[in-house]
Amino acid sequence: MKKHHLSIVGILFLGYFITILIGTILLLLPISKNITEKIEWYDAMFAATSATCVTGLIPFPTTNWSTFGQIVLLVLIQIGGLGFMTIISLILMMFKKNIGIYHRTVLMQSAGSYSISGVTNLIKRIILVTLFCEIVGAIILSLRFSSDMEIGKAIYFGIFHSVSAFCNAGFDLFGVSLINYQSDWIVLSTIMLLIIFGGLGFVVWSDFFDHGLKFKKYELHSKIVLVFNGIIILVPAIFYFIFEFTNFGNAGKFTYLPFNEKILNALFLSVSPRTAGFNSLDLNNLTSSGKLLTMVLMFIGGSTGSTAGGVKVTTIVVVIANLVSLARGKDKIVLFKRRVNNNIVKQSSALVLAYLIITIISTLVICAIEPNVMFESVLFEVISGIGTVGLSLGLSSYACVATKLILTFLMYVGRLGAFSLFDLLLKKSENIYLEKPEGKVLVG
């Protein structure tokens, strides 16, 4: 009898759905809450989805959950950060079970690998990098927090925030994110490095394992990620510094900070929106320019095959490179002396358009549902949701049920990818493709 498998996209959607469902049930247990008020099912589902999809949007502070509830969230964050199929494959490997071709293919798409041949080795590297970064981060943060709280609590806080940062989740146990540490170089620098390392992608780390610091031997993907990640951190940091920490336009509200803290927070503002969700400053006090820049960074996101969300750095680079090539009258894109396949160019343009369409429709619907909420706040929350970022201007905490369900859906789609949603919903044609006569269309 022929064996029928779920589609690759189907198994990923189902896997994350089951994980979220289990998380929701656990969070609804009385042992999970720290408050006397009843926690509604949609708030529990919102939190479980946010954790599993490593977003960080929350209906209320994480401190409202008990230690048990917080540990549930932490486990969901780790599953979401590593990837559902990575966890399943790790369990199979622990019990010395072979990973079949089908499951290797699913894992390849989930982890952003090039082929199925090195999938087992990739899993080991994913686990190694994750554990190393999270343990080192936890040690540094625990030592720092130990000066503010008793050692047991400091270790717990260190572990929680290290995992949350590396997985680009943005959940915190302080209730006000990292605002109380806005002048702390140790905490913010550690969190930034964890966010960056988690957002590079495991394919980049695999290149590092294979070639060390020999950049020329890296795959084109890794070269694009490393170079343009640096650019997308430094350039926005300069703009943040101008918009928020100087008297440019007489709008900056953080000009009172010492110069070194301005540098620190400008860098943190540049790193966190892609796509961690921690904030060291009250985002409501950002200038309009600062908020817009944050939305752009949230939309871009991190790297393919990483813990980050968004349309991804490589996607944006390919789209911009295509625009430049068209402007120069060239029909091929060349980056780092390598030609980019035309199918990748088409996919990149389609992906950006898909995210824009979902963002526009979601914003329109929520604006209609929440007429008293400013457009800026709605758009910010929508981009944060679909980009799995977690930064917020406050809407998630007071939104109606319908808005929370839309944001829950956006986080889910953001983690799996807009293409995955369309692939699941739209039936692919099995008809043999016949060449049709060419028609003329005027554009621009």
In a nutshell, what does this entry contain?
The termini are far apart.
Walkthrough of the structure:
By secondary structure, the protein is mainly alpha-helical. It has one domain. It contains 18 helices and two strands. The termini are far apart. The model has no long low-confidence stretch (mean pLDDT 87).
Topology:
Layout: H1 8-27, H2 41-52, H3 67-82, H4 84-94, H5 101-111, H6 119-145, H7 151-166, H8 185-200, H9 202-211, H10 220-245, H11 259-271, H12 288-300, H13 313-327, E1 333-335, E2 338-340, H14 342-369, H15 375-386, H16 395-398, H17 401-416, H18 418-425
Antiparallel strand pairs: 1-2
Overall geometry: globular
Strand percent estimate:
under 5%
Which segments are poorly predicted (pLDDT under 50) over 5 or more consecutive residues? Answer: none
Strand order, largest beta sheet: 1-2
Radius of gyration: 22 Å
Count up the helices: 18
The largest pleated sheet is described as: 2 strands, antiparallel
Features:
444 residues; 18 helices; 62% helix
